[in-house]
Write the structure tokens for this entry.
Amino acid sequence: MSGLLGTAALILAPGVPLALGVLWGVPRLRRRIGPIAPWAAVPALLLALFGTPGETAELSWLLFGSQLGMTETTRVFLFFTALIWFAAGIHGRGHLADGDHCERFCVFWLFTLAGNIGLILALDVALFYTSFALMTFAAYGLIVHDGGETARRAGRVYLVLGVLGEALILLGLLLAAQATETPLLPMLAELPEAIAGAPERDLIIASLWLGFGIKAGLPLLHFSLPLAYGAAPVPAAAALAGAMIKAGLLGWLVTLPLGFVGLQHWGTIILLTGLFAAFAAALIGVNQKQPRVVLAYSSISQMGLITVGIGAWMVAPEQGPLLAVAITIFALHHALAKAALFLGTDVVRHRTRRPVFWLWLGLGIPALALAGLLPSGLLAKTSLKYGVMAATEVPAAWSYVPLLLSLAAIGTTALMARHLWLLRLEAGRDDAQPTAWHGWALITAATLLGVLLLPLWGIDAPWMAAAGGLADALWPLAAGLGLAALAWRWLRPLPIPPADVLLLLTPLPGLALRAGRALGVTGPAARRVLRHLEAKALDRYRSTDHRLGRFSEQLWRREAPLLFALLLAVVALVGIRIA
Amino acid sequence: MAWNALILFGVLATSLVASAVIFLLAESRHTTRSVFNLAAAVLKLLLVGWIIRGVYQNAEYELRFTIIDGVDFILHADALGMMFVGLSSLLWLFTTIYAIGYLEKAPNRSRFFGFFSLCVASTVGIALAGNLFTFLLFYELLTLSTYPLVVHRGTRESLRAGQIYLYYTLGGGALLLFGVVALHVLVGDTEFVPGGVLSGLDPALHPLLIGIFLMMVIGLGVKAALFPLHAWLPMAMVAPAPVSALLHAVAVVKAGAFGIARLVYDVYGIEFAFSLGLLGPLAVAASITIIYGSVRALAQDDLKKRLAFSTISQVSYIILGISLFGPVGTLGGLVHLLHQGLMKITLFFCAGNYAETLGVHKISELDGAGQRMPATSVAFTLGAFGMIGIPPMAGFISKWYLGIGALEAEMHWVLGVLILSSLLNAAYFLPILYRIWFRRRERLWCEEKVLGRFETSGWLLVPTLATAAFALIAGVLAGMPFSPLYWADLIVSREYLQ
């Protein structure tokens, strides 16, 4: 792409959805913007397909002076992000175009999209953080769209965690920027090296890892994901689970000091967290009753596997190139498959005249890909294993990592089996007009293409290892299916609520509920008591505040002359004493 | 030179003359008063624009005459002063437009607008003052001219608030007077000079200088609402919305913060103040105020009261920036002087719009306001996001510079204060936004009025949207010439790195 065209494309990719979102503010234009909103992701998609990495666009007037650009890695992220938003938009045309009923959905959609694309293309820290914030806050509108109590609770949890994440990221970015040569105009590319040499290295890594981790579904910070994915309208959930979760991953990739110095302790912590996520999420996920929540846990589990790659990269910087490719492939493969699965949950609910065989084949492809049977999943997992194994100078315990990754695949298979089983129960339940299936078909086709083409994509991929890995991939699959069959026959799901840890983190409500139940008090009654206590506490806070205000007022009104005399006397005394 | 002095005088005179004429106009001559008022505001803005251009090109603008031997009356335009003048003239215009709409059919408008103009004149005087004496003169004039505005409604509550306001500000003024006299005894007429005038004094006097600094900061801190001198501010909320807007964004609290800036940069000199160890305690006081204001704001249900506590917190950002030793911190503090003004005036305009159009004063009654008044609510949202410091709003620019400034000054703990304050700001602003946009209205509005063909009267809506747009643009286009950041950078390069 020539220079001017390339610059224009870079600006239009986030600019078009942003401009549409702003124009939506004009009431007369709303009806026209609704129908074209799904297409807002197309400029970004075209840029990802035809743009040349390395081109930049200077926006010196923006913020502290911004730059947009694309690298090899961000090109992949841009591709699947734009594709998922496009497909989800096509799928959600009903939501977007219906001007009266779902008024706000459209504007939040456009702003979230603009933020998501902006953060991928931003080259400087200010624009990156701005886009990230835009995405975080606009997505709240998508999550609470349904307006029910579940959606509002999901929104509340999401927002609290989101704000916390923003604060952590800001802390990390400020500290990191200070370590660069131009703290007031830091570029993203300078950060990793600066962090590696910064005196506050550990604090920076911790805040960035946790801050982005909230988006990427890090265990113990993940609980907004199952709630949000379960509550948001399906197209929004697909975009959240496919594209936005990867924004957290991208945040790690562009900021963390990967490949500069070996950070043994951080690498180990991150790797263990990833493994923990992979297993724990699978265990909790198979007990869920809603397909979308199962998928949410599957996302957390898969992101855990990617996190393992990040951890390995931290420990063994020399494996950087290999692991970078593995992580990127994994991200692409997971994003497309997950978006297809989410859109599938909607398609399958509606009675359709299309042949059932094709429908279930379409639903099965991404599931099989995730389980690691189809080439894309196989390659993603194998290259990850390969990268981890190739690391030298690592503790002996590392030799178990590949085995653990295989075991995690059992969990993935079980999750997918559970998901498809739940879908079967829901299939054709809805008598409503079938929603558009084009979006779903598009993303499924993309996944299929990805499944077939990804291995051909010229990377120095460990092909031979992958072929050998097929056997490795088969036994976890078989084990997972076997486990699923056993579970289906003999086990009943445990009653774990979608926001599992949230209840552990706030033990009081959970314990009170349980105690109430033991005493024969029902859930709603216990909740009423809790609400009452909460109101009481708030009242107490308010009245303390009020008393404080009264006190200072009284003090100044009645005793003002006295106070001033005292103050002056003190000042005079100090003055005399010093003089 | 004579021309320049005349123009400088013109900036002050526009509002002084406006004030005098308005006092003389009969109460019923509404149109004449409005036209005159607006004309004066526009003229002043043009003059200020002219001077800003001149100051940018290093032209001299000074007006001085001797009052008694050794005491001069000096008006002088420098980059720091023009920043404050620019802010107050711009916002004066918008607030005047707003007040005309807000006080339609209210009694005593002549008195109101008269004192309103006088208040702006004193603010401009404070900004342009070239020495401590002139500064003090206008500082006291500001106290006296704002009192009638605070008690404008004449209710028992507002009279009480006015009384407390006077106690605080006159007391603070007295302390400031002591400081000014003390410095006068030490060094004679204290002109504002970049780098300060005190660093050459005998080291034996340093303890005394510390004492004077303390006294003057307390005196100025009353207006800047530093904890524990802040209690008058939330009470002054009984004043009409335009007055609150002016008080919080431009006139009173800013005069205090600006005075502290002058004291640190142009009287003591930042390096001298740093060597005396004065900046650390100032930073601590500012940090305590930032947190305290936010914590108190959480508990308020009255919208204007919550905004008032938020002001207490936000104005201390400016003082925090001043107390950070290093150019970037200074930049953050000074730029927030403008940013906070733009964002806070927007929020108060919005609060006024809700009160005037829907009769809503409490946050708990705001459910569904976004449906009824979308434009006002968008403005409120932008202002609130700015206060939290979410990019690309102006507040983010301030916060970034303050953060980097704190790190350059090696005061890492300030970063914690900034982050905590952002979280608290989010905790008390986001629930308001939630009510406005995501809750549904289930009852009728308290006292809904139909004002004009928009959601509310155009007089109220246009200034609100304009200031919100400025707050957005100041953030998005921070890198452009003549943005607040650019101007603050100019001040720092001129005055700080002498």
User: Anything to note?
Assistant: The mean pLDDT of chain A is 78. Chain A touches chain B through 52 residues (CB under 8 Å).
